[in-house]
Design brief:
This protein is an alpha/beta fold and 604 residues long. Helix content is 45%, strand content 13%. The strands form 3 sheets. Strands 9-10-8-11-12-7-13 form a 7-stranded parallel beta sheet. Strands 1-2-3-4-5-6 form a 6-stranded mixed beta sheet. The protein has a two-stranded antiparallel sheet with strand order 14-15. The protein starts with 14 loop residues before the first helix and ends with a helix.
């Protein structure tokens, strides 16, 4: 007689999820790292099904796990407790894939429970008549055997390669299915039926509210481990502070217990975390966290960075410089120490001037001053520059990076563009004008640690999603001090918003779109009033200043539309033009296509 399974309810209608879900169950206590990898994979497959079949959900441009989880229509349709479970599976899966930290049996158990909760909800809501998962039975999990070996790093790597190949094979087979008109009609009917079933099954299975201890143990602990912290290390959890907390009489002579303290190499506190149960507003812990910061500063002569979190939302508060802001995770030791050091090394931005050998035109100098004023004087963390094509946006960004680095406001910078050619072009310009600053590209096979990193949006999205090949570790949320968005506009945020939600950094947007045509949502992204960028220098002004000439129409021959284009047959100057066309790159790999057929060209 076979072993009972918590996931048996998947057999009839959800068989494509059953095998991987049962692997989570099998490994949960015996090899929690393998269980975490399988759980992350099962979650991703389930979400891809959900986005493909529920018309109430808006399909993200990139169907990465991170993009699907953070798609607004999905977040609105998921109960809060289930969203905790989903994020837990995602985060722990990333730690399992990229970290060398041990995954505990308790975390393996929680992974199985979290997956059960989500798949149970999925099956009940989307199965006619409603599936009946029942209650999770811990006794059905195979027990860990003493001294039983876990999968080795090589075996885990091989497992991931095999699972990826399996997925690609399934996707290819699905793509080859013919879609006749009758099949499409049948599919449309099935989707309509699915929505009816969904309405009938509004009752959901929600995970229980997490207590404060569970919030710490199963959510915040994983977030800390993502950033390289060991939450179980000595003096980290429940750290006692004496003679400094308010008493009933109002005196500061009481004792308190800080949920977490993160310590620097010099033995001084670099950050603290105040945790609250999931249903409570984390802001309830703000004042208590402030008191703990006072205590730690009193005893250790250094004020820590403040975090307060309920696991669902986390806030960072460097109360000596910035107001509180929501973040997606914690910073590493190195990054927190950098924030502490900036308190004494950060210079006044408004006192700096851009180097004239980088950018010296009057409007570039004025744009630089406006950005420095926005970041420095007004403490705003986002700026948007509108400048006509050909007026030196990249040169301006180089000058701004140089200024921020000289003033100790930025140590690491990310430059994002939507085409490989633009990434390579920007990298060359930075190399040329900032030769003393190390640069690297995520598109290169050999990637070195650098102060300025270049990437396309899809490549970086894969990095934070944990799916980029050969990536040894994840970028923490605080890895970059500044992110530059080339050609910032609404579609960039719609496609790759998960990147900007994930990273906690200064944000600089560059666009050639006239300010009156920039979408209002773009201004909202940069926390600006409609049609009021940080600085603008548009085409008509550039023409009047004789930096640009007026545009003129030209006649284009139709040979390419008739015969298509082959990259290798073009002269060098036309190859450069070819490289600038977004449609000529493979969406999945980012590689330049060698040939564009006439039908595809006409479609473009």
């Amino acid at each position: 007689m076979g072993r009972s399974s918590n996931f048996s309810f998947l057999k009839e209608h959800w068989a494509f999820l059953l095998q991987d879900a049962q692997q989570v169950e099998a490994y949960a206590l015996r090899d929690p790292r393998a269980a975490s990898i399988y759980a992350r994979r099962t979650l991703e497959i389930a979400l891809k099904w959900l986005f493909a079949n529920d018309t109430a959900l808006k399909v993200p441009y990139e169907k990465s796990l991170a993009a699907m989880i953070h798609e607004p229509t999905f977040a609105r349709n998921i109960k809060r407790g289930l969203f905790h479970d989903i994020k837990f599976i995602h985060r722990l899966g990333n730690v399992a894939v990229h970290g060398d930290q041990e995954i505990s049996e308790q975390e393996g158990f929680k992974t199985a429970v979290a997956l059960f909760q989500f798949l149970g909800w999925l099956a009940r809501v989307y199965t006619r008549g409603g599936a009946k998962p029942g209650q999770f039975q811990p006794s059905w999990l195979p027990k860990a055997e003493p001294d039983a070996p876990h999968l080795s790093a090589q075996q885990l790597e091989k497992l991931q390669v095999e699972l990826k190949a399996k997925d690609e094979s399934a996707n290819l087979a699905h793509a080859k299915l013919s879609q006749t008109e009758s099949e499409l009609a049948e599919l449309k009917q099935q989707l309509a039926l699915l929505q009816q079933v969904k309405e009938e099954n509004k009752e959901t299975i929600g995970s229980d509210e997490y207590t404060e201890a569970q919030t710490r143990e199963l959510i915040i602990d994983v977030m800390l481990r993502e950033a390289g912290w060991n939450p179980k290390a000595e003096n980290v959890e429940e750290y006692e502070v004496l003679d400094c907390m308010p008493t009933a009489s109002g005196e500061r002579t009481g004792t308190g217990y800080v949920d977490y303290v993160m310590w620097g190499k010099d033995g001084k506190p670099v950050a603290l975390v105040e945790a609250k149960r999931t249903r409570k507003d984390p802001n309830i812990g703000k004042q208590q966290a402030l008191l703990y910061a006072d205590c730690l500063e009193k005893h250790h002569d250094q004020r820590p960075i403040i975090y307060y979190s309920n696991g669902y939302t986390t806030w960072l508060w460097d109360d000596q410089f910035y107001p509180p802001r929501e973040v997606q995770g914690f910073a590493t030791l190195d990054e927190l120490q950098w924030k502490i050091n900036q308190r004494s090394s950060r210079q006044d931005l408004t006192a700096l001037q851009p180097k004239k050998d980088i950018t010296g035109r009057y409007y570039q100098m004025e744009a630089a001053a406006r950005v420095m004023e926005s970041f420095g004087t007004h403490r705003k963390r986002k700026s948007l520059i509108v400048m006509a094509t050909g007026t030196g946006k990249t040169r301006l960004s180089i000058a701004l990076v140089d200024m921020l680095m000289r003033a100790n406001w930025a140590r690491k910078v990310l430059f994002l563009a939507d085409r490989v050619a633009l990434v390579n072009q920007a990298k060359r310009e930075f190399n040329k004008h900032l030769p003393h600053v190390s640069v690297a590209s995520l598109l290169d096979k050999k990637q070195e640690d650098a102060r300025v990193l270049f990437s396309t949006y899809p490549t970086m999205l894969n990095c934070i999603d944990g799916t980029k090949k050969d990536q040894k570790e994840l970028f923490s949320v605080a890895h970059f001090d500044l992110i530059i968005i080339d050609e910032a506009h609404r579609s960039v945020y719609q496609k790759y918003g998960a990147i900007f939600d994930y990273f906690d950094s200064l944000l600089l947007g560059l666009t050639a779109t006239p300010r009156g045509e920039v979408d209002r949502n773009t201004y909202k992204l940069f926390e600006l009033e409609d049609f009021q960028p940080t600085y603008s220098y548009e085409l008509d002004k550039a023409v009047a200043d004789e930096y640009l000439v007026p545009p003129r129409a030209i006649s284009v021959p139709l040979k390419f539309q008739r015969e298509g284009i082959k990259y290798k047959d073009l002269p060098p100057e036309e190859q450069e033009e070819y490289e600038l066309q977004e449609e000529f790159y493979d969406r999945e790999t980012g590689e330049l296509k060698e040939e564009i057929g006439s039908s595809a060209l006409n479609k473009y």
